Amino acid sequence: MTTYLLAGGGTAGHVNPLLAVADRIRDREPDATILVLGTKEGLESRLVPLRGYELLTIARLPFPRRVNGAALRFPAGFRAAVSQTRRYLTERGVDVVVGFGGYASAPAYVAAFQAKVPLAIHEANARPGIANKLGALFTRHVGVAFRSTRLRGGQFVGMPLRREIEELDRFAKRTEGIKFFGLDPAKPILLVTGGSLGARKINTTISQSVTTLLGAGWQVLHIAGGTADLQDPRLAGYTLLPYCDRMDLAITVADLAVARAGAATVSELSAVGVPAVYVPYPVGNGEQRYNAKDAMDAGGALLVEDSIFTPAWISSQLLPLLGDRSLIAEMAAASITVGTRNGADLMVDLVTSAQSPATATNIEAK
Question: What is the pTM of this model?
Fold first, then answer.
């Protein structure tokens, strides 16, 4: 019986692929022990136990980005996190560590290397994070979600997806989705989403452009996010939701999407062939722009900067696209060529190869 330690957390971008891989391991090895290493503060503290996995915790320890008191305390805190993780490896008899980036991953990578425990890594973003750049020094079993990702030892496995997306048949479920959201089956549907918390610029621009979009003969399914504060104009063809717990059905009905370019969003839309207009989040290290690159290069998506995504852009750029259904169909066909539905299987295959002595990485030889 194999004991796995899956490390990662903090955000949905790290937790969701971790859980998808955990589920696939459980499918393949019902008698395996699956442990998750995270923090008490991250999203994993709620989602991991809900999915039925045991959560082991270490202190939340962000990498310092400037010289201050936290930076001076970081080395001691990092050593403590590595020591705690090594104790987990020993006490629980861990056979392999699988990291997904985030606060908990870097200590796990160092601990696995010190304890000579096999290590595999998954990088969800096209622009790798600091933790996975570190981890890639310790293993050649590195899976990436995007073909354009540049990470030492990286090989394309795609994004481990939620099962409801992985198994989604858009054509078979479209009628169900139309009924669920109360939409008109005779009109095309524009899906708008800025993620679970919402995206202020997307929400504002779409709300100001609703009549223009409806006038183009399209319906709008607008998932504003939990923090949005929008007034519903209650126009026929416009459905405004603060959140959506059936994103599989929302994706099913979408003929075109307007969305942030988070790794999960891009991967899910590409996997099922939904063309998109991506509006990358303008704050951070710019990873969302890179996430959209493969779909853009294939012709399955457009990218517009957050500052340019205005009602004027809707009128001058989006409306002509909405009027060209043949181009949208071509974009859909191109989108699905960069997506993959078997990311969970491919990542578990990579984890399995990391455990094989024949494929073990000789770090000292590099």
Answer: 0.90
The amino acid present at 307, given as its one-letter code, is S
**For residue 44, what are its two tokens?**
């994993």
For 3-161+342-360, give the CATH class: alpha beta
Q: Please state which architecture CATH assigns to domain 164-338.
A: 3-Layer(aba) Sandwich (3.40)
Q: What are the strands of the beta sheet with 3-7, ordered from one edge? A: 54-57, 33-38, 3-7, 96-99, 119-123, 142-144, 154-156
Rounded to whole angstroms, the maximal C-alpha distance in the chain is 66
Helix (H, G, I), strand (E, B) or coil at 349: helix
Rg (CA), the chain: 21
Distance of CA 85 to the CA centre of its chain: 25
Q: Round to whole Å and give the CA distance between 215 and 218.
A: 7
- For residue range 134-171, list pLDDT tens digits in order: 999 999 999 999 999 999 999 999 999 999 999 999 99
Long-range pairs for 319-327: beta carbons < 8 A, 24 or more residues apart = 319/212, 319/213, 319/216, 321/256, 321/277, 322/188, 322/190, 322/213, 322/216, 322/217, 322/218, 322/256, 323/216, 325/188
pLDDT band at 68 (very low <50, low <70, confident <90, very high): confident
Q: In angstroms, how far is the first alpha carbon of the chain from the final one?
A: 32
Domain definitions of the chain by residue range:
3-161+342-360, 164-338
Report pLDDT digits (tens) over 79-101: 999 999 999 999 999 999 999 99
Same fold, 3-161+342-360 and 164-338: yes
CA separation (Å) from 172 to 112, 168, 188, 245, 252? 45, 9, 17, 19, 9
